Every structure is written in C-alpha cells, then in structure tokens.
Amino acid sequence: MIGIEHCTIFAEGLDHPEGLAFHPDGSLWAGGEAGQIYRISRDGSDVTEVANTGGFILGLAFSPGSEWLAICDLGKKCVWKLDPQTYELSKWAEGAEGHNFNIPNYPVFDKSGNLYVSESGNFREVNGKILKFDPQGNGVIWCEGPYNFANGMALSPDGKYLYVVCSFLPGVEKIEILPDGSTGNRSVFCTMPRTVPDGLAFDDDGNLYVSCYAPNAIYKVTPEQEMTLWIEDWDAHTISNPTNIAFGGSDLSELFCSNLGRWHITKINCNVKGHPLVSHVK
Question: Residue 230's domain spans which residues?
Fold first, then answer.
C-alpha cells in the first residue's frame, strides 16, 4: 500500500470528471457532467474545453493511432467520435442491432480498431451487456451478459481477455476473446465486498488496478487474483469518488484518476509502469 502523500492535484477546474484518456502527445483528455470535453496540457497547467455534447460524459478512449476519441455519453445515450486535431464532433453509434444504448459507459479499442462498449443497463437491474463495433461502426451485441451494472473495462496485456467491472456485483469479471473475435468463457475474476468499483488499468506485470467510486480507494489485484488495498483517501479531498484511471507520464509510470466527487484530476507518483494501450503503440 502507498500513502496519500504520493498524490498531487494534476489539473483543476473540471466539472466533476469521470472519463480520461491520454493522447500520445502527452495531453490528457477528460469529460464533464454537462457534456464538456477537456484537453489538458501535459503538465496540467492548461485545461481547455474543446467541445461539448450537451450530455454527461462517461468513459473515453483513443483509437489505434489516436486518429479519433471515442466518447460515451450518458445524457445523449450514444458514443461520439471526436477528431483531436479539428475538434469536430459527430455521433458515431446509438446502439447495435437489437439494442439501443441506455447507459453507454466505457469504450475499449483493440489493436484492429474494433471498439468494445459496456452497456450498464438499468440502475439496480442486472441487465448489462457488452457491444462490439468494427472500425466502420457496424455493431453487434457481443456478450449478452447479463452484468450487474457493466462499467469500466480493460483488455488483458495479451489481448485475449476483456475485463469488465460489475459495480454492483461488486467486482470484476473477465471474458475470453476467441481467435475469431467471438465471446468465449465468462468468469468472475474477483469480488470486492462493500465497494463500488468503477475503473480498470493494467500495469506491465499484469497486475490489475481497480478504482472504486466508494470507498475513495484503488485496489491492486495480481494475476493470481490476490487483492490488496493499494491507496486510500479517507477524507476524500485528493481522491474523491474516483472513477476512471489511466497510466501516463513520459514512461507510463504515473497513475491518473478522475474524481467524480470533485473538480480535479489526481496524479499518483507510484513508480509502477503501466501497460501501453493500443493508442500508445506506434
């Protein structure tokens, strides 16, 4: 476990951010609860609103090559496509055949440009699922679930499994991705009693970090499924209702978390190297 003294406020003045994603140029992108899309300079000193959907922004992810940013929008019940150069915003998907989005929560790209999106389902009902879109935007219901509020997701470092937070399980499940891209075995990776898990990120050693909306903490789960409390902020001033997390910095050795309970992004100086996402690989 590391102490709260390892944390600093990286950027301030955001509107209760939930999603965040790093561009290869070092900028950090985040969302706000009134539809804001922010671009934050690599040192955190400049926070600029570059677009606004008029909705409520949840998870964000850059495509392979970072040509575009996928934006999950609770308010507009869709996934947006944002050009990071021109800031042009267009609606990309409102669902797939057989399902319109209710709570499109979190996007994850694979190396081929396919996009997985968690559909949380109805609040306090076990009907979440995972949708999958090809690079052209054609979508299918990839995994029917049902999931108990599907939330943050992460691909395993080898790309063979998709890990999914189930906030009211509470815990994390994993789904095997078969060679043809279809759904394989589904299993519970860990359970987390008396928490509300939200976000996920892998380090380079295969450890999974799980941020929790409640309590104000991040847990670490080893590949052997041993879970420990990694960091906690009992007074909720530096880490406050943490939602999504992402490794960043020059060598991906710092962990950043958004704080839905406050107005800033937190940087955790942890000296742990994060596993590169497909948007980081050139």
Answer: 4-269
